[in-house]
């Protein structure tokens, strides 16, 4: 299967104490084993670096540690989808049409990237919000379950 992963899967899979560690790690492990093809937005690299390098983990993840995680556990296994300048304008216009603003732009940019490639699943732990932002992709959006790429129940 071709699976698009939200940044929150990278974060959860990287932190054993994270609430969603097991299903996120299972999804990423399936991609690492070559059972599924992994896709993500190029922006997710910056988000993952930002979040992991500032989180109050114990021990603290230093920027070098986060780079190591990205280079060993994520970069070799994913195709990263970049956006063109007009994709940003389209994402903003889509939010304005929904009368939404703020940080939802980042989710909309991920969804815009997901819409650029043929996919079987879009994994996120923000299922309800992502389906509302991109109803045309709603049938693909789900949360991963431990040990499978089958969709889990919607998280709210």
Structure at a glance:
By secondary structure, this protein is of the alpha/beta class.
Low-confidence stretches: 148-156
Helix content: 40-55%
Within CATH, the superfamily carries the name 5'-nuclease
Shape: globular
From the alpha-carbon coordinates, what is the Rg to the nearest angstrom? 15 Å
- Written as H for each helix and E for each strand, in order along the chain, the element string is EHHEHHEHHEHEEE
Structural class call reads alpha/beta
Could you give the count of β-strands? 7
CATH architecture: 3-Layer(aba) Sandwich
Distance between the termini: 25 Å
| Strand portion | 15-25%
Q: Summarize model confidence as the mean pLDDT.
A: 93
How would you describe the oligomerization state of the chains in this entry? Answer: single chain
Number of individual domains: 1
**CATH class value:** Alpha Beta
Tell me about the largest β-sheet.
5 strands, parallel
Strand order, biggest sheet? Answer: 3-2-1-4-5
CATH topology type: Rossmann fold
If helices are DSSP runs of H or I spanning 4 or more residues, what is the number of helices? 7
């Amino acid at each position: 299967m071709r699976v698009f992963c939200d940044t929150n899967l990278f974060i959860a899979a990287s932190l054993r104490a994270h609430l969603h560690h097991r299903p996120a790690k299972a999804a990423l492990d399936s991609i690492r084993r070559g059972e599924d093809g992994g896709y993500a937005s190029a922006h997710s690299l910056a988000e993952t670096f930002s979040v992991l390098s500032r989180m109050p983990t114990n021990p603290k993840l230093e920027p070098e540690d986060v780079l190591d995680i990205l280079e060993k556990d994520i970069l070799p296994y994913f195709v990263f989808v970049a956006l063109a300048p007009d994709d940003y304008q389209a994402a903003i216009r889509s939010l304005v049409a929904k009368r939404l603003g703020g940080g939802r732009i980042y989710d909309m940019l991920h969804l815009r990237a997901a819409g650029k490639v043929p996919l079987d699943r879009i994994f996120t732990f923000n299922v309800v919000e992502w389906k509302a932002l991109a109803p045309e992709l709603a049938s693909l959006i789900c949360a991963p379950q431990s040990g499978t790429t089958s969709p889990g129940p919607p998280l709210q």
